[in-house]
Amino acid sequence: MTGKGFIFSLAAILAISSATLSATIGGQTGAFLRLPLSYDDARLAYTYIASCKPQTAFLYNPSEILNTENLFFSGHTSLLSLERRLFGFSTGYNIRGDAAVGLALVSAGVSDVDERTRSGVKIGEVQNGEFACIFTFSKKVIRDMAVGGNMKYVQSSIENVTAYGVGFDIGFYYRFLKRQLAFGAVLKNIDVKQSWDSSPYYGRGICSTESLPLTAAAGVGLFPKDIPLSILFNVEGNSYCFNWGGGVEYSLFDMVSLGAGYSSRGFGAGIGAKTSFGRFSGEVGYGYFQRKNDPEGSHILSFSFGLK
Question: Least C-beta-crowded within 10 Å: which of 20, 103, 264, 277?
């Protein structure tokens, strides 16, 4: 049974990867949800499909929010190249141990972009930004297996024009071999479309519709018994690209964790620390991600508070 489960996991990754390459072509909108938001994103190079923290389940695999002990609040801030900034907040609550719900807010934008005339005279500043509100739900199916979904609202603004859309993500995870091996899969951006209409602001404005690219991802995680080590690998693809990645995380004294990862997007590393005060717990972490063809890299700071 265990051998078949492992073979099934690997076969499913290959099947999902192949199917994704022929997915329906969508637009490039919503790319800010694929940027590194938490320090875990950076240090393990986006490899959390099979085993992510509840604080970032809305990004990777909604079923993983079930792993929260009780209640948590989490915040993230990312300083990206070209003076871009990314902010995130998430909260989640475990319901009776077999279900959990969560809410996440993500905002991205560029500051200090001057608007000038053809002669170079400054007449104002351009306000470009993106925003997402994501509701997450997860339910245990059997022991060590859960399914989950996201319902998300995504908004994009360019100068005076704003577009928005609503869509879904679905995912699941399964742990076996006495929880030493995990498999997860997710399908993102189901029917997420944004409609643009610039005609109220520009004489030759037009109406257009863009779709967030339907994306499939799958991953495996290995957690050796009696060793505080996590080894993760995942693949992800849509009609535009195919990505793969692997990462390793090691814990020291159950308080400090070190991680590093490499993927087709780039490489990252980071450190995190956590502590407990009775029923309360806290975690803070820093991650750095060096994307290919990006000389500046990304710096991410995350914090989280929880109630056991």
Answer: 277
Each residue's pLDDT, cut to its tens digit, for the chain (308 residues) gives 444 444 444 444 434 433 333 333 333 556 677 777 788 877 877 777 888 888 889 988 999 999 888 899 999 888 776 667 788 999 999 998 899 999 999 988 765 566 666 777 776 666 678 889 999 999 999 989 999 999 999 988 776 678 888 999 999 999 988 889 999 999 999 988 887 776 666 666 677 778 888 999 999 999 998 899 999 999 999 888 899 999 999 999 889 999 999 999 899 999 999 998 888 999 999 999 988 877 778 888 999 988 87
Q: What does the alpha-carbon distance between residue 180 and residue 114 come to, in Å, rounded to a whole number?
A: 53
Under 8 Å CB-to-CB from 113, ≥6 apart: which residues?
125, 126, 128
| Element holding 13 (H helix, E strand) | helix 2-20
* Cβ atoms of residues 167 and 212 within 8 Å: yes
Q: Which of 50, 114, 35 is nearest to 80 (CA)?
A: 35
The class level of CATH for 2-307 reads mainly beta
- Residue 231: both structure tokens together: 């080894």
Both tokens of residue 216? Answer: 């499939």
Domain range annotation of the chain: 2-307
Q: How many CB atoms lie within 10 A of CB 28?
A: 10
